[in-house]
Specification:
Layout: H1 2-19, E1 34-35, H2 36-47, H3 51-60, E2 66-69, E3 72-75, E4 96-101, H4 105-111, E5 121-123, H5 127-135, E6 141-146, H6 148-153, E7 159-160, E8 166-168, E9 176-178, H7 181-184
Antiparallel strand pairs: 1-3, 2-3, 4-6, 5-8, 6-9, 7-8
This protein binds ligand HQG.
Length: about 180
Amino acid sequence: MRVSRDVQISKFMSLVLRHAPEEAGLVLDDNGWADFDQLCRVIETRFHAPKPDVERIVAENPKKRFTLEGNRIRAAQGHSVAIDLDLSPSAPPDVLYHGTKLEFLGPIFEQGLKSQSRQHVHLSKDIATARIVAARRKGADAILAVDSATMAKDGTLFFLSENGVWLTSHVPSRYLKQLTEQEVS
Ligand code: HQG
């Protein structure tokens, strides 16, 4: 019972802090921060969960999706609303990974990896993480290796989110390679 309520609250926080702050009557500042006390009051009303529960849900979040600093909170990545995370560019590892679906590979190899509804393309630091991302959707998984070393050399900027996700604007298909099943497992 408590677990599912925690998940509901976490999903609500992702919705509000990434996509639709107006759902909670909140305003995000230019860098995506919201007033934590105000968010807690909305959660208390909707889910009957007091502030310490919200603090615990933030602290225990398995992907560390939320950054809580004093009385401000933001989603570490995944936004569709236009905010500036104000991250400094970081040198990426030589290879990054992207978990997706076999059925998307046609358009991906035509257009490259696009950020779609979000602000960035999300890349994983290892194959295991990319597999988890791929498995979120129905259908056969595909794991792409991204030649981030060459992309960085060619001038593309990469950013490391507060919870360890690599972000960039677009990955042209010349930097992509599908991994074989053997390489993935
Ligand atoms: C695909 C989760 C067709 C792309 C994860 C993906 C992640 C294309 C989907 C985070 C395409 C977008 C983000 C193209 C990309 N044609 N399909 N040209 N370019 N795609 O959800 O990376 O649990 O916006 O492969 O852990 O799946 O929410 O991105 O399948 O870090 O915290 O279009 O979401 O984090 O889907 O996932 P998404 P994503 P949370």
